[in-house]
TrEMBL record:
Coiled-coil intervals: none
Pfam families documented for this protein: Trm112p
Name of protein: UPF0434 protein N8I74_15630
InterPro entries in alphabetical order: Trm112-like
Family: Belongs to the UPF0434 family.
Lineage summary: Bacteria, Pseudomonadati, Pseudomonadota, Betaproteobacteria, Neisseriales
PANTHER family per UniProt: PROTEIN PREY, MITOCHONDRIAL, ZGC:162634
Origin species: Chitiniphilus purpureus
């Protein structure tokens, strides 16, 4: 994922920053506890496509 793209992308719900989870190929919003998938190098920034993080799931640093 391009670092410059990651700098400008925000959560579509809360407009907060996103963290890149390279192992799961997801962009994670800590505030909303949602993970947006990255498919074929393209982030899918749709709420309907986001996965809710489990209460015990670590959201990174």
């Amino acid at each position: 994922m391009d670092a410059k793209l990651l700098e400008i992308l925000v959560c579509p719900l809360c407009k907060g920053p996103l963290l890149l989870d390279k192992t799961k190929q997801e962009l994670v919003c800590k505030g909303d506890r949602l993970a947006y998938p990255i498919r074929d190098g393209i982030p899918v920034m749709l709420e309907a496509e986001a996965r809710e993080l489990a209460p015990t799931e670590d959201v990174g640093a």
